[in-house]
Write a structure and sequence with these properties.
14 helices
Length: about 375
């Protein structure tokens, strides 16, 4: 009886693998991304809806159909134990060169193939896989979805954010769509923490502050909350920015995408949204940065300060420079960039080059 059950489930898995193998990959349209796949083995990490699956499918469409096997590990028909027993043989018999394990979990064993690609929100320490991190769209990538490149594109970016799927969601359904997507991807504690973090976007906050606030509305273990908070950081749903030369100081918190602010809270603060958007551009360009008192972003290698002031003028700029003059001289700052919504100007200073520049020009210029 036991042998019969083993054979039965093995045959079912063979049928399922055959279905995966024969199913044609469909991709309606693929837009330019700055991350791309070559003939290497990868793990691709990124939050839900960041575009991992589309990136893979676009690559697979360049290959011979019989050479690859694509498996979405979220498929509820998959029995992991039976898959582990049948996958190596199936790949060998069908001469699979490229194996894709989308939404991978570490209970799944790898088959011996020429190229292995896995995707996950979690980063796994696997030596032979090169890591690609896929963030939501930056502004330049977003423009690939736009029909015209003018001020309306930037306004559209503020409304939609960087999740590629949002371009297909009706305006009146976007917030609920994001809420449902996040509830599916995160556990209850992680989702509650993320909702609170949305209110604290671009502000200094500690895990203890989150605990103090949430314990008033629900029964919560400090250890569990801290673990969930760490998970959100590890999966890059939230990002933390250190204070310059003070690694133990409270960090500033930023969301993975500006669309979460509107979807998860009714709080309105355009300045913080604008700062978060600038942080994400810096993050995706891999530039080392810190915050300091009165300084939004300090880039030590570039000897540059970035100030986020969407609606400002030269008078406000001079006043701001006076407030941070000590920092400018102490760190010999060579460049001060004030990012605005639409104002553009250059200002003289004895030590630093000072420039006011609109966000869209700044984002595309780098």
């Amino acid at each position: 009886m036991i042998k019969y059950e083993k054979d039965f489930y093995g045959e079912i898995m063979e049928i399922l693998l055959e279905e995966f193998y024969k199913t044609d990959i469909y991709l309606e349209k693929f837009h330019y991304r700055k991350v791309f796949i070559e003939e290497k083995s990868y793990q691709i990490n990124g939050i839900t809806q960041s575009g991992k699956t589309k990136l893979i499918k676009n690559y697979l469409l360049s290959l011979k159909k019989s050479s690859y096997l694509y498996i979405d590990c979220n498929d509820i028909r998959i029995n992991i134990d039976v898959l582990n027993k049948n996958l190596p043989t199936f790949c060998k018999e069908n001469k699979i060169d490229v194996l894709i394990l989308d939404n991978y979990t570490d209970t799944i064993k790898f088959a011996n193939v020429s190229q292995l690609i896995i995707t996950s929100e979690i980063h796994y320490e696997i030596d032979f896989l090169e890591t690609l991190t896929l963030y939501p769209l930056d502004y330049e990538e977003f423009l690939a979805y736009e029909h015209k490149y003018d001020s309306s594109a930037l306004n559209h970016f503020f409304k939609l954010g960087g999740l590629p799927s949002m371009h297909k969601v009706n305006a009146d359904e976007r917030n609920i769509y994001i809420q449902k997507t996040l509830k599916y991807a995160l556990d209850v504690m992680e989702f509650d923490i993320l909702c609170f973090c949305a209110k604290m976007m671009s502000q200094k906050i500690s895990p203890f502050s989150v605990y103090e606030r949430l314990k008033n509305s629900r029964k919560v273990s400090k250890d569990k909350l801290y673990k969930s908070y760490e998970n959100l950081v590890a999966k890059k749903y939230i990002h933390l920015l250190e204070k310059n030369n003070h690694p133990k100081a409270i960090k500033k918190l930023y969301l993975c995408d500006i669309s979460l602010k509107t979807a998860l809270t009714v709080d309105k603060h355009f300045g913080r949204l604008f700062e978060n958007m600038i942080y994400l551009e810096l993050l995706k360009s891999n530039r080392e940065c810190y915050y300091d008192d009165g300084i939004d972003f300090y880039l030590p290698h570039a000897e540059e300060i970035i100030l986020c002031m969407p609606f400002t003028d030269e008078r406000a700029l001079f006043k701001k420079i006076e407030q941070i003059e000590g920092f400018i001289f102490r760190y010999q700052i060579k460049k001060i960039t004030m990012i605005t919504m639409n104002r553009e100007a250059k200002v003289s200073h004895p030590l630093s080059k000072i420039e006011m520049i609109p966000f869209d020009i700044w984002a595309l210029g780098d």
